[in-house]
Amino acid sequence: MEGLMMQQPLRVASLLTHAERHHGSQEIVSRRVEGDIHRYRFVELAQRARRMANALAGLGIKAGDRVGTLAWNGYRHMELYFAVSGSGAVLHTLNPRLHVDQLAYIIDHAEDQVVFFDLTFLPLIEAVAQRVQSPKVFVAMTDRAHMPATHTLPIMLLCYEDLIDSHTQVFDWPPLDENCASSLCYTSGTTGHPKGVLYSHRSTVLHTYAAALPDALNCSARDVILPVVPMFHVNAWGLPYIACMVGAKLVFPGPALDGKSLYELIEAEQVTLSAGVPTVWQGLLRHVGERGTTFTSMRRTVVGGAPCPTAMTAEFQERYRVDVLHAWGMTELSPVGTVCSFKAHQLSLSPQQRYSIQATQGRAVFGIDMKIVDADGSELPWNGISAGDLMVRGPWVTRGYFRSDDAQPLVDGWFPTGDVAKIDPDGFMQITDRSKDVIKSGGEWISSIDIENVACLHPDVATAVCIAAKHPKWDERPLLLIVKKPGRSLDSDELLAFFDGRVAKWWRPDAVVFIDEVPIGATGKVLKNRLRELYQDHYVSAR
Ligand code: ADP
């Protein structure tokens, strides 16, 4: 029909050209693996991304080819985000915390043609290189002076800065179809091989619009954003793209993710918004608490990837005046699905009522449809009580896995998340469990997350994990695994008594096991399945 709008394709490279033109002097600050702090501006990012795009073409990379990265959050990784995707190839971010065999599997499954890596990962890449067939070139993300003197890589090793220096910055981003692939991220399922989720230019740009909105991650040109969530994990929740769209300053922490290093960077660069998983924030809060100091600029932090305990929300907000944005997402959702920001009528609620809202993962951002269903697939009401399997659909939700022979995951066009959730009449969704973590006691479900939240409120508890342990009478009963704060003398009876009045009687765990530490997986989350393997017979063997 005449008089309609232009059909401008949505492309990743457009985010960069926008940032260069409209926010060219905005800064990107990176702590490098070389140990120093590097800073430059969006205009230089764009110039170097174009040089790298020319270099990729020189290496024979064609549209659709996969290019791997094994790197921390930093400016060179950001350059690859745009050089690779912008030129039509597929950026495949690799998680260095995976086992070497899994990494090798993923690289070959994706047929990565080139793999870029940070110097920290030379030993890992040497081990991986012995096991893979696909890559034709490795590139160390450093300059000539820091190139490794020796290595055991069986194929060519190039130097990142040499590639940049030997190519011009004249490059026209190709007019790609918005539905072609831009990046690839494997999700580490608990069973079988990791599965690849392939994002498109269109899905990435739409996700960027949605995730930047005020009631989502709330990002603007006045923000200084610190993505602690790694760029190898679902594109750092989209923050590198968002920063380009809105013109925010970016601060990259490199490999230093301990509380002290993060705190120093936050203060030095006057970060206003950070994002990461609860385990990272625990380290940060411990450091700031021990030093008796505070945050002078940080006003918001996005907590996601795992439930944010109310105790953590309260500490951030009451002690430091840092608002917590509790968010839920998945690799399969690019990742943002819901974010917890208040509606107007909730602002006048009591602090306790507001904390119970903040314990939810929040409302769906526009673009994500969600529903909860029972075992027969029938939709359940949004009454804040009924819990069922959470299903989602939307333009940045995957419809299948990359090169997967498995049955396609969708059920009538909906993606089953594997999470169990309830939704209240205001549309606030709360994950009560992963379907495999839920505790089925005598045919009724107990939420392991609710139990953990209560345990975390006890002042002597550092970390709480609740698992389903086999039970001769009830099939399963909750078992609580606790890491105490240093020097505390908490015992089981005291902790179990703490549950009285806080949860239904039959939800109270039957026992507590004190442990020294919890196993943490590749994306910074507690490995519940490993703990389940160790302790699931606790009630059976205790008899
Ligand atoms: P990410 O860790 O970025 O969210 P993954 O694909 O690794 O992505 O993991 C997704 C799963 O993590 C979800 O299905 C859900 O079980 C869990 N998860 C993510 N965010 C939250 C949250 N805020 N609260 C509870 N669970 C969460």
From TrEMBL:
One annotated GO biological process: fatty acid metabolic process
CDD domains: ttLC_FACS_AlkK_like (cd12119)
Gene3D superfamilies linked to this entry: 3.30.300.30, N-terminal domain of ligase-like
Domain AMP-dependent synthetase/ligase: residue ranges: 18-402
Swiss-Prot/TrEMBL keywords: Fatty acid metabolism, Ligase, Lipid metabolism
Domain of life: Bacteria
EC number: 6.2.1.44
Domain AMP-binding enzyme C-terminal: 451-525
InterPro entries: AMP-bd_C, AMP-bd_C_sf, AMP-binding_CS, AMP-dep_synth/lig_dom, ANL_N_sf
GO molecular function: ligase activity
PANTHER family, per database record: ACYL-ACTIVATING ENZYME, BUTANOATE--COA LIGASE AAE1-RELATED
Family recorded in the similarity comment: Belongs to the ATP-dependent AMP-binding enzyme family.
Name used for this protein in its record: 3-methylmercaptopropionyl-CoA ligase
Protein encoded by which gene: dmdB_2
